[in-house]
Amino acid sequence: MASKRRERFEKVASNRVQKVIDYLNLLGNCANKNNYEYSQKDVDLMFKEISRTLKETRILYDKELNKTNKGGFRFEK
Predict the structure, then answer these.
(1) Which among 14, 41, 62, 68 is placed 20 to 30 Å from 32, CA to CA?
(2) What's the domain of life for this entry (predicted)?
């Protein structure tokens, strides 16, 4: 049986991941050059910021997961 914290994580994280996906799909709609005007620089800036934020968020999870690994350095087998 899953713990309450696990259940809460699954519920909240699933909803938030879906929102990110939905908003990225909405951003993709802006790619239509018949409706919007933008440059390569605009696209590069948008995706640079998205990538930076995604990387920072991933680091938060990795740091939290590594807190429990206090065994120090070792080679994986």
Answers:
(1) 14
(2) Bacteria
